[in-house]
UniProtKB/TrEMBL annotation:
EC number: 3.6.4.13
UniProt region (Disordered), positions on chain: 73-99, 121-141, 193-248
Domain-related comment: The Q motif is unique to and characteristic of the DEAD box family of RNA helicases and controls ATP binding and hydrolysis.
EC class (word): hydrolase
GO MF terms held by the record: ATP binding; hydrolase activity; RNA binding; RNA helicase activity
Coiled-coil ranges (or none): 44-71
Biased segments, Acidic residues type: 205-214
Free-text function comment from the UniProt entry: RNA helicase.
The name this protein goes by in its record: ATP-dependent RNA helicase
Annotated Helicase ATP-binding domain residues: 343-526
């Protein structure tokens, strides 16, 4: 319809053509062929491929840079001072390292905060061929590395913890005391005194988790908070060259002074290849386990690892009295640790990437700065007819957006003239527009897709966004992931450059940390209230897993739920399934089995989802069967059990789903149910404390009953579940690789649903999924 209207208007100004094309494309139309005679999908795929390659290249470059930095750091340690020059006793003496010292230096690096992020097993140890020949095994095994000594050598790290905490031989245990949080600020260039220069050289073997090579040059902090001023490694070398110690630094990085060690550092060998030459990897392993052991001991002794609250109250920070009043009314008196840390970064005007465990109050951590921003902007500017949007909060789902807006409304209860609105999919575009016009607001909580609709359709929001002061991205790792990244890029492009940005998540994979500069300024703070090497899940949540044949899953789920609901008085359970259709199928079955269940997934209407979500928030004695729409951010109080059926899409999703229980420092339980061919996922979460649960005894009568109940479920739902199942596992890297096995497993799943023959696929779909011609796949005629 829109196409014909536009085509009838013959005199389209040439300047409007690109806009028209964008509009048509947005409406699902647009040109049928693209340059090179490609169709829309080929064109799209080509661009996706290009983007992937570009990203891969960037990562590769980053890795090379990182390796180059390590090489230059080690070279500087190995280079010899000029024998003719008088050595200043206050400066470190850079003698060639003995092989043993070399290992210690590497281990030092390994123990640094963030180093674990960069050092993964695939990188393997740095293998020294010539140096290793000198380094006899006897030498290594006869003098085991003293971890305490190693750590005491890493003064940089110890200095982060504060001078009082790093004295004597207790460095390791001090270091491992439950940390409140760490703040790493990245600064481009830092002018330093000669003293600082010295310390920078001293710490040149250190590393951090950012893509910048963060080098410690100073400390600050109170209440256990540690601040570090860091500098980009590349700048560091340039800068030192410019300043006092120019000559010596130039000498330090000169390849002429490298000797045999230069060659040894270049060669990295995968860990597998050197496993039997156990030297370095064994030592690193030993240090790692010692590190974990001491941390566990320290945490055990202090016991407050799980406390989410800080020492500060809201009225002690620069929070407006009316907000404090509203917070107090809502029962918030003391700040949580993430709230305190975020507030101080916000007040300093810094951009920040904030990592804090699930259920520790991240929403309030960004809503309080949001309200302060609006108050500040309102006080400095006269009232405007159409007020600018001062704060934009982006989050992945509509439920989460509604939840955040509801929490914001509680906090602005006593502030007249501040408004919050949501822009989420599933509502009518025109209704959104009317709402924005009739009820102007300064804070918008939006999902990226719907916000982009408004921006691209010039609903007036773009102009209002030009006044933006604060951008907040909740579940940032998810929004910066491939699924949302394009939208995020477009949104960021149309926001003003002069603004503060705060990113939040309970998990921050290193790839996301790298690309966070899409949103954050280069000089941003990295606040980690979890702590490097600490558990990302809550210790009070008991986690277990079960590996059982796929066809038994329905019965096992029923058994687990029955057991839990009969044992826990005020039970409240969330059951995660892999896809929307699997969720629907599981719900239908459990409903037939007379369990008190509700369902939420993307195929349900927004109204229904909101109703069920509200009901589940308020109630007890209820089981919510859901897809991943409820995995992140949803705050359902007092969930007693989280069951995850099937492999989660990644480690992060496992953590976020589990995080629906054990909120606000409470306890909870999590069970992961996998089929034997999904068990490889356990490797991804091997650092988390999951116990293997024993398989329950399954009642054969119940098996028959389930089979009977399955026949009552609509065949079209089972067919949809089969298609969704195939799609989900086909996109799993491990399982989707072997298409024949995949189809066999899918057909097994079909049988467990009581379908005699596997449902057919459209030829196009089968082709796209790479399943055409695979035995067992039926193609629709
Ligand atoms: N200062 C506080 N004092 C008491 N309770 C608080 C405080 N801050 C937050 N809470 C409560 O903690 C719970 C979890 O908060 P919130 O949903 O913000 O967690 P989150 O860190 O965003 O979790 P997720 O990672 O799952 O998104 C909520 O019930 C909230 O009311």
């Amino acid at each position: 319809m829109y196409t014909s209207i536009f085509l009838r208007r013959r005199t389209i100004a040439s300047a409007a053509v690109p806009q028209l094309l964008t509009f048509l494309r947005h409406m699902g139309g647009g040109p049928r062929t693209f340059p090179g005679g490609l169709n829309k999908w080929q064109w799209k795929r080509m661009h996706e491929k290009k983007a992937k390659e570009k990203e891969k290249k960037l990562l590769e470059q980053e890795k090379q840079l990182y390796q180059a930095r390590i090489r230059s750091q080690i070279r500087s340690k190995l280079s010899q001072p000029d024998p003719t020059s008088q050595h200043d006793p206050n400066l470190p003496n850079y003698k060639p390292l003995s092989p043993q010292d070399h290992i210690k230096a590497l281990a030092d690096r390994f123990m640094k905060e963030g180093a674990e992020d960069l050092w993964n097993e695939a990188d393997g140890p740095i293998k020294s061929q010539s140096a290793q020949s000198q380094l006899s095994k006897k030498e290594l095994t006869s003098s085991p590395i003293d971890v305490g000594k190693l750590i005491s050598g890493s003064r940089n790290l110890a200095s982060n913890i504060g001078s009082s905490a790093c004295s004597g031989s207790n460095n390791l245990s001090n270091l491992l005391k439950p940390r409140h949080y760490s703040v790493v600020a990245s600064h481009g260039r830092i002018k330093t005194s000669p003293r600082l220069n010295y310390r920078r050289k001293e710490s040149s073997s250190s590393d951090d988790d950012s893509d910048d090579s963060d080098v410690v040059v100073g400390t600050s902090g109170e209440n256990g908070r540690r601040g570090r001023v860091v500098s980009n490694g590349r700048h560091l070398l340039d800068e030192e060259g410019e300043e006092g110690g120019r000559g010596s630094v130039r000498r330090m990085v000169s390849s002429a002074a490298l000797g045999k060690y230069d060659r040894t550092i270049k060669k990295r060998v995968p860990l597998r290849d050197v496993e039997d030459e156990d030297d370095l990897s064994l030592h690193v392993q030993a240090i790692r386990s010692e590190f974990n052991k001491r941390r566990d001991e320290t945490v055990g002794a202090n016991g407050d690892e799980e406390s989410i609250l800080s020492q500060k109250r809201f009225d002690q920070c620069s929070v407006s009295p009316l907000t404090v009043k509203a917070l107090t009314a809502a029962g918030y008196v003391q700040m949580t640790r993430v709230q305190e840390a975020t507030m101080s970064a916000y007040l300093e005007g810094q951009d920040a990437f904030v990592k804090a465990k699930t259920g520790t109050g991240k929403s309030a951590a960004f809503l309080i700065p949001a309200i302060e921003t609006v108050l500040k902007a309102l006080s400095s500017k006269p009232v405007q007819r159409v007020p600018p949007v001062y704060v934009l909060i982006l989050c992945p789902t509509r439920e989460l957006a509604s939840q955040i807006a509801a929490e914001a409304n509680v906090m602005i209860k006593y502030h007249d003239g501040i408004g919050v609105q949501t822009l989420v999919g599933g509502t009518r575009f025109k209704v959104d527009q009317k709402r924005l016009e009739s009820d102007p607001c300064q804070i918008i909580v939006a999902t990226p897709g719907r916000l982009l609709d408004h921006v691209e359709n010039k609903s007036g929001i773009s102009v209002r966004l030009m006044g933006l002061k604060l951008l907040i991205v909740d579940e940032a790792d998810h929004l910066l992931d491939l699924g949302f990244r394009r939208d995020m890029e477009k949104i960021v492009d149309c926001l003003p450059r002069q603004k503060q940005s705060l990113l939040f998540s309970a998990t921050i994979p290193k790839e996301v940390r790298r690309i966070s500069q899409l949103v954050l300024k280069r000089e941003h703070a990295y606040i980690d209230t979890v702590g490097v090497g600490c558990l990302e899940t809550h210790a009070k949540v008991n986690q277990s897993y079960l590996v059982a044949p796929h066809e038994e899953h329905f019965q096992i789920v029923h058994h687990l739920l029955k057991e839990h609901t009969s044992q826990v008085l005020d039970y409240k359970v969330i059951l995660f399934c892999t896809t929307a259709m699997m969720t629907s199928l599981m719900y239908s079955l459990l409903h037939e089995m007379k369990l008190n269940v509700r369902e939420i997934h993307s195929k349900k209407s927004p109204l229904y989802r909101t109703r069920v979500s509200d009901e589940f928030r308020e109630s007890k004695l209820l089981i919510l069967v859901t897809s991943d729409v409820s995995a992140r951010g949803m705050n359902y109080p007092d969930v007693t059990l989280v069951v995850q059926v099937g492999i989660p899409c990644d480690r992060e999703q496992y953590i976020h789903r589990l995080g629906r229980t054990g909120r606000e420092g409470k306890g909870g339980e999590g069970v992961l149910l996998l089929a034997p061919w999904e068990a490889h996922f356990l490797d991804e979460i091997k650092d988390l404390p999951l116990n293997k649960a024993s398989l329950p005894h399954l009642d054969p009568a119940m098996k028959v009953q389930i089979k009977g109940l399955m026949t009552k479920i609509d065949t079209s739902l089972k067919e949809a579940a089969y298609h969704a199942w195939l799609g989900y596992y086909n996109s799993n890297r491990e399982i989707g690789r072997d298409k024949t096995t995949l189809v066999e497993l899918a057909n097994g799943f079909c049988e467990s649903m009581g379908l005699q023959t596997p449902p057919s696929l459209f030829r196009k779909t089968a082709l796209k999924m790479g399943l055409k011609g695979i035995p067992g796949i039926r193609i629709r005629k």
